[in-house]
Specification:
CATH class of chain A: Mainly Beta
Radius of gyration of chain B: 13 Å
Largest interface: A-B, 23 and 23 residues
Structural class of chain A: mainly beta
Shape of chain A: globular
CATH architecture of chain A: Sandwich
CATH topology of chain A: Immunoglobulin-like
CATH topology of chain B: Immunoglobulin-like
Distance between the termini of chain A: 37 Å
Number of helices of chain B: 0
CATH architecture of chain B: Sandwich
Distance between the termini of chain B: 41 Å
Largest sheet of chain A: 7 strands, mixed
Oligomer: heterodimer
Strand content of chain B: over 45%
Structural class of chain B: mainly beta
Strand content of chain A: over 45%
Number of helices of chain A: 0
Helix content of chain B: under 10%
Chain lengths: 115, 112
């Protein structure tokens, strides 16, 4: 079974530039998550989709971050404009369902460095 | 909002020694999950605990969920170099919703 795919794996940009990350979840997984993991910290949920609808985006800095999952499969996360404090690993995860305690499968992440 | 803390932040052990990490939530949890993240890797699911006082074992790993469902622990018996990594607990609030809040993590280093 193929895992969660993410691209790019690494990205270096200057502050105020824009960047986009792509995620393809495990086939059949209805729920998709984007997390931000700053070095030395646990993953922080940015946004959660159930199919193509947003379930939770309470911690997404909406003035600069946006995400979409148009066809309920793959997803993109965009930052515009980037700030120095956005330097982190952006993890995409998926799970089979929404309710209850479904385990989350994580992708390899995109390491973003903002200079 | 819900906060999940873990102690210790770091732990260095000699191979063969035991290791324990503790997880404490500011609110009651409906369930708790544990993940392991190897250096440079991504979190990988280990286990989920749902019932108050639940204890589960996976080979040398023992997971426990507190009676009040606000704390949990992971104990590794006789650590091996393959146990190196950061262990995260992740709790789901009892008040509804499906959001997992990850703990601060415990980084384990095992020396020969």
């Amino acid at each position: 079974e193929a895992g969660v795919a993410q691209s790019p794996r690494y990205k270096i940009i200057e502050k105020r530039q824009s960047v986009a990350f792509w995620c393809n979840p495990i086939s059949g997984h209805a729920t998709l998550y984007w997390y931000q993991q700053i070095l030395g910290q646990g993953p922080k949920l940015l946004i959660q989709f159930q199919n193509n609808g947003v379930v939770d985006d309470s911690q997404l800095p909406k003035d600069r971050f946006s995400a979409e999952r148009l066809k309920g499969v793959d997803s993109t996360l965009k930052i515009q404009p980037a700030k120095l404090e956005d330097s982190a690993v952006y993890l995409c995860a998926s799970s089979l369902g929404y309710s209850g305690g479904f385990e989350q499968f994580f992708g390899p992440g995109t390491r973003l460095t903002v200079l | 909002g819900q906060q999940v803390m873990q102690i210790p932040q770091y732990q260095h052990v000699q191979e063969g020694e035991d290791f324990t990490t503790y997880c404490n939530s500011s609110t009651t949890l409906s369930n708790i999950q544990w993940y392991k993240q190897r250096p440079g890797g991504h979190p990988v699911f280990l286990i989920q605990l749902v019932k108050s006082g639940e204890v589960k074992k996976q080979k040398r790993l023992t997971f426990q969920f507190g009676e009040a469902k606000k704390n949990s622990s992971l104990h590794i018996t006789a650590t091996q170099t393959t146990d190196v990594g950061t262990y995260f607990c992740a709790g789901r609030g009892a008040g509804g919703g499906n959001k997992l809040t990850f703990g601060t993590g415990t980084q384990l280093k095992v020396e020969l």
